[in-house]
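#onboarding

Welcome to the new folks! Below is a worked example of what a typical request in this channel looks like: someone posts a single protein sequence, and someone else replies with the predicted structure as tokens. Don't worry about understanding the tokens yet, we'll cover that in week two.

Example request:
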Amino acid sequence: LVSDQALNVRAYATYLDASYDSFPGAQIYDPRTDGLGGNVQTVPFDASGSDMIRAPRSTFGINFDYTAETTAGDIGFSGSLFHSAKYYWDFQNRLTQPAYTLVGGEISFTPSDMEAIRLSVWGRNLTNEVVYSQMSSTSVGDRAGYERPRTFGGSVSFTF
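Example response:
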């Protein structure tokens, strides 16, 4: 989007209108209430017209990095923002990932007398959004795994 020797900016966006036109044989898990054993059964479900699983209507993001040259060395700043609309994890469109926005950033320093070394501190998911890495129905209920919460760290990189 914007670029010069010190500043780079990149942006992107998607729009998706994804639904099942005809999907009468989708499989879902349904609790058993007939007393014949087992807690759950797989049953057909007509998902026609339902939103496709893991297909958010829209996403967008922007990333930047900037390098300031000083007599002591290069100082770098970078950041990212990603937004996703809600989406579903199942054919019934019952298990939902709400809309979320992830923000991250990094500050780095490369000394002018030791250009093979780069020191940095960073933060990810700075707004501490709850984002599922997976979600599904089971015989005892719904289960979910989560992406990492707000995380901070530092690193030392060597180039050789």
